[in-house]
Amino acid sequence: MYAGGGKFKFWALNAALIIDGKLTIMYMSVKIWSLPMTINVVKIRSNLADTINRVAYKGERVVLERRGKGVAALVSMEDLALLERLEEEADVKAARKALAEMKRKKQKPVPWQQVKADLGL
User: Fold this and answer.
1) Contact by Cβ (8 Å): 14, 1
2) Which residue of 8, 11, 17, 89 sits 20 to 30 Å from the alpha carbon of 112, by its own alpha carbon?
3) Are 37 and 54 in contact (CB under 8 A)?
């Protein structure tokens, strides 16, 4: 089965398997994204509700363009949560790397009060 609109594609595979004499139904779905849909900032005003529905309910990604260049994007809450989780994982990895480097060089952490004073905060 294939369903989709714009640049979003959704594929689903249904199959029936018999394992040890028992009927097993298998359902597998795969989301495949190609390029996100693009829309001009001026046109989004007249199509905002439809565009939001496509993002929220179909999982499409929409790039808002001004003069042919992307300036912002609309993504589903699921995609936003994934992005935030990836950013958090990258931050944790960088912090662990920095702590390991400090330990290797036998450095001590700089107290927060000192950082604020150095930055004039």
Assistant:
1) yes
2) 89
3) yes
Tokens linked to 54: 């496509």
Decide: helix, strand or coil at residue 4.
Answer: coil
Residues 6 or more apart whose CB falls under 8 angstroms from that of 56 comprise 76, 77
pTM (whole model) above 0.85? no
Sheet with 2-3: strands ordered across: 2-3, 8-19, 22-33
Q: What number of CA atoms fall less than 13 Å from residue 53's CA on the CB side? A: 5
Total number of residues shown for the chain: 121
Q: Which domains does the chain have, with CATH numbers?
A: 35-119 (3.40.1620.10)
The two tokens of residue 62 are 């929409």
CA 42 to each of CA 38, 60, 66, 111: distance values in angstroms, whole numbers, following the listed order? 12, 19, 8, 49
Tokens 């594609």 locate to 9
